[in-house]
From TrEMBL:
<dbReference type="InterPro" id="IPR011057">
    <property type="entry name" value="Mss4-like_sf"/>
</dbReference>
<keyword id="KW-0862">Zinc</keyword>
<protein>
    <recommendedName>
        <fullName>CENP-V/GFA domain-containing protein</fullName>
    </recommendedName>
</protein>
<dbReference type="InterPro" id="IPR006913">
    <property type="entry name" value="CENP-V/GFA"/>
</dbReference>
<dbReference type="InterPro" id="IPR052355">
    <property type="entry name" value="CENP-V-like"/>
</dbReference>
<dbReference type="GO" id="GO:0046872">
    <property type="term" value="F:metal ion binding"/>
</dbReference>
<keyword id="KW-0479">Metal-binding</keyword>
<dbReference type="Pfam" id="PF04828">
    <property type="entry name" value="GFA"/>
</dbReference>
<feature type="domain" description="CENP-V/GFA">
    <location>
        <begin position="17"/>
        <end position="134"/>
    </location>
</feature>
<dbReference type="GO" id="GO:0016846">
    <property type="term" value="F:carbon-sulfur lyase activity"/>
</dbReference>
<comment type="similarity">
    <text>Belongs to the Gfa family.</text>
</comment>
Length: 134
């Protein structure tokens, strides 16, 4: 996530948005519709095909039913082990990432990326898209 990818403003609005993996066992409740979507072109995000929206980690509710979440902790020189990617343990859909505690990269541990593809087309309709490398 680059510094130009601002987090959406906090919202006390009842206009929360919920997305889920394919099987519905993992859901994410977002405080608001994303204001911007990033098509990250780093080595892993390009392969995942994810479209990211960024939120403060404490404003997104992640719920997972059995078998829960699986994670992949990124371990390569491009990233230096500071991001965990999370997938549904049943259907394998990539739902989100978040920075691990003590992560570098400008406080990534307080932020998270939500794969907006879990929101469906209507959930991201009209949202500005950006192509970046973080």
């Amino acid at each position: 996530m680059s510094s130009s990818d601002a987090l959406p403003p906090s919202s006390s609005s009842p206009a929360k948005l919920t997305g889920s993996c394919h099987c519905g066992r993992v859901t994410l409740e977002l405080p608001s519709k994303p204001t911007k979507i990033n098509e990250c072109r780093c080595s892993i995000c390009y392969r995942y095909g994810a479209l990211w929206a960024y939120y403060p980690r404490n404003e997104v509710l992640v719920t997972a039913k059995e078998p829960g979440l699986k994670s992949y902790l990124r371990d390569d020189p491009e990233c230096s082990k500071d991001i965990g990617f999370y997938l549904c343990g049943h259907c394998g859909c990539l739902t989100h990432w978040w920075g691990l505690e003590g992560a570098g990269r400008g406080g990534e541990s307080a932020k998270m990326g939500v794969n907006t593809r879990i929101l469906g087309e209507k959930g991201i309709e009209g949202v500005e898209r950006h192509i970046g490398y973080k």
